[in-house]
Write a structure and sequence with these properties.
The strands form 7 sheets. The protein has a 5-stranded parallel sheet, covered by helices on one side. A 5-stranded parallel sheet has the order 11-18-12-13-14. Strands 6-7-8 form a 3-stranded antiparallel sheet, with no helix packed on it. Helix 1 packs parallel to helix 8. By secondary structure, the protein is an alpha/beta fold. The chain has 2 domains: 185 residues, FAD/NAD(P)-binding domain (3-Layer(bba) Sandwich); 131 residues, FAD/NAD(P)-binding domain (3-Layer(bba) Sandwich). A hairpin with a 4-residue loop joins strand 6 and strand 7. It contains 9 helices and 23 strands. The chain binds flavin-adenine dinucleotide. Flavin-adenine dinucleotide binds next to helix 1, strand 2, helix 2, helix 8 and strand 21.
């Protein structure tokens, strides 16, 4: 029997959205439409921003136009998603209501909430955006003495490893330039320790790496405000010559204002199927809040957005074609932790394990660094 031609609308062209659209296009027959909507024309690979920060990559090397997806038969709309009506599956993009679709995958990521900390944006630099990493690179290359402070500006942010990688890579860069003995490196984190969801062993291993590098690390230290050259942590404050930060995040308003969101603004999708409360509407990646048995959310990380993308794509393909098996996301994932000098550690395991994730960490070696380079190449050359 002929399949009824259907349309799948993927909202967001980041890691989750692109991985979903590609998998759908590979597995659905051509009469079915795969449409992807993204605010900006360009995709950029966030895991490489730290290499932009160190000067190891130029921004163009980690950026590609989403329009390239149309060569494979994915329809691309560049525009801002302004309203999602999940009941009728009608989405408004740039003032225009799109016709109702059969399936929606919501992958709009998390917004930056830098404004939550007074003075942070004006008096600091962030590696968390491509433009920020690009601006930070010459500052790091210039500094010859003084004090660099790396901080996480809230306990909840994207990629729990990234700020720790930033501190280690900054240290390695200063050593390579022979100025480390004149530059103090401090790290202040809002959370109780490095990557707390990954467990005490991983946290201790990362704390050990910071200490070996003589990085003055203090956890449970929430920034409350920043002035030129001075960072405030409640009643205490510290001088700094260069402030480098990971911003807080918030749910995108278009999600928070939609019936998809819970009271906290995020989509509490089913942990295993990524189904929402609405039929044929799935949500994946950073715009979801998946609570783990330990009481903390699944970290916002590309590895999970990617795995969830495959889960929902397989479910949608099975529903449309009437064959194949619905996907199931099992909470497994791994993360490279760049330590500088062309080396990386690797933490991986089962984040859905109860009562707490079971994560093992492999120590830093060239192998894991090259593993991340290979993944970057795969994304930039084969995903787009
Ligand atoms: C510096 C840094 C390093 C990282 N390193 C790693 C790493 O090594 N490993 C790892 O697993 N994860 C890493 N991450 C985290 C990873 O990048 C994210 O978790 C991942 O990108 C989430 O995928 P997503 O599809 O949910 O959201 P995103 O990739 O953020 O995509 C969301 C997309 O939606 C678009 N969008 C948002 N709102 C709208 C709207 N209203 N209308 C239209 N489009 C909209 C955005 O422009 C964006 O393209 C890192 C993050 C940072 C910042």
């Amino acid at each position: 029997m002929a399949e009824r031609a259907q349309t799948v609308l993927v909202l967001g062209g980041g890691i989750g959205g692109v991985a979903t659209a590609n998998r759908l296009r590979q597995r659905l027959r051509r009469e079915h439409r795969v449409v992807l909507v993204n605010r900006e024309e360009d995709f950029s690979f966030a895991a490489s921003y730290l290499w932009v920060m160190t000067g190891a990559r130029r921004p163009q090397q980690v950026t590609a136009s989403l329009r390239r997806l149309s060569r494979r038969g994915i329809e691309v709309i560049i525009g801002c998603v302004e309203r999602i009506d999940p009941g009728s599956r009608i989405v408004t993009v740039a003032g225009r209501e799109l016709p109702p679709v059969d399936h929606i995958v919501v992958a709009l990521g998390a917004d930056w909430a830098t404004d939550r900390i007074p003075g942070l944006a004006d008096n600091g630099h962030s590696f968390a955006t491509l433009a920020g990493a690009e601006r930070l690179a010459p500052e790091l290359a210039r500094i010859k003495s003084g004090r660099i402070t790396v901080l996480t500006a809230a306990p909840l942010y994207k990629c729990p490893a990234a700020p720790y990688e930033a501190a280690l890579m900054i240290d390695a860069g200063l050593r390579a330039r022979g100025v480390r003995h004149r530059v103090q490196v401090a790290m202040r984190s809002a959370e109780p320790g490095p990557m707390p969801v990954a467990g005490a062993n991983v946290s201790a291993a990362v704390t050990g790496l910071l200490s070996t590098r003589d990085i003055d690390y203090r956890p449970n230290t929430q920034v409350t405000g920043v002035e030129p050259g001075r960072v405030h942590f409640g009643a205490e404050s510290e001088d700094t010559d260069l402030l480098v930060y990971m911003p807080p995040i918030s749910a995108p308003p278009v999600i928070a204002e939609s019936p998809l969101a819970d009271a906290d603004g995020w989509i509490h999708a089913d942990p295993y199927t990524l189904a929402t409360d609405f039929e044929q509407v799935h949500a994946i990646g950073d715009n979801t809040q998946i609570m783990l048995g330990m009481g903390k959310p699944l970290p916002r990380a590309g590895v999970f957005a990617h795995g969830q993308a495959h889960t929902v794509a397989d479910t949608i393909v099975a529903a449309i074609s009437g064959s194949g098996v619905a996907g199931r996301f099992d909470g497994h994932g791994g993360c490279f932790i760049e330590t500088g000098n062309g080396r990386a550690a690797y933490g991986s395991g089962d984040f859905y394990a109860d009562p707490a994730p079971t994560i093992a960490m492999k120590s830093a070696s060239r192998r894991w660094h090259w593993g991340k380079v290979a993944f970057e190449l795969n994304v930039m050359r084969r995903w787009l």
